[in-house]
Amino acid sequence: MDPKENTISILVNNKPDVMARIAGTFSGRGFNIETISVNVTDNPQISRIVLTIWGNRDTIIKIEKQLNRMVDVIQVDDLTGADAVRREIILIRIKAPGQTEAELAQKIDTKGWKVVSNEGGYLIVEVTGNREEIEEALATLKPFGVEDFTRAGTVALLRQNK
To answer: Are the CB atoms for 116 and 91 separated by under 8 Å?
Structure first.
């Protein structure tokens, strides 16, 4: 089986060392976590970790079993083939374009992106979407002079409970 990107959702007890132990599970097996997003749930004692990792199905099954054996892990769900919504967010800083400002404004408006800052000669554009939409935004905005960007990890949620 060829490796592919996998999305894993992990509910954990919200304790200081849990994230480090989970990351150690992956690094100890030689896997790089591609993206990671962690936040508290509606219960402040529980956090949800959503991460993406490249691997084949057998590898992911082994990692899931290892995670399920950890004391503070409550639930592990492989969302890779599941009916789930996956989103990312990126903030992109562009030097104010001058003569191409109208063209840039039209692209931002057409795509539904959002200018969240227009100060000091720079625009910061917010784009939310799936991985392909984020990559498209970077490619589209690159000719306008992307100076820097920051990208959050994938967040994902099943459309409905199992």
So the answer is: yes
Two structure tokens written together for 72 = 């503070």
- What are 57-80's pLDDT values in tens digits? 888 888 899 999 999 999 999 998
Q: Are strands 114-119 and 4-13 parallel, antiparallel or unpaired?
A: unpaired
Query: Cα-Cα-Cα-Cα dihedral of 76, 79, 82, 83, to 10°?
Result: 110
Q: Which domains does the chain have, with CATH numbers?
A: 4-82 (3.30.70.260), 87-153 (3.30.70.1150)
Residue in the structure block whose two tokens are 């509910």: 11
- What's the CA dihedral at 86, 50, 11, 58 to 10 degrees? 100
DSSP state of 82: S
Residue type, 13: N
State both tokens at 110: 């057409």
pLDDT per position as a tens digit, 93-149: 998 767 677 888 888 999 999 999 988 888 999 999 999 999 999 999 999 989 999
Cβ proximity of 46 and 74 under 8 Å: yes
Q: How many residues does the chain have?
A: 162
Confidence (pTM): 0.84
59 within 8 A of 46, measured Cβ to Cβ: no
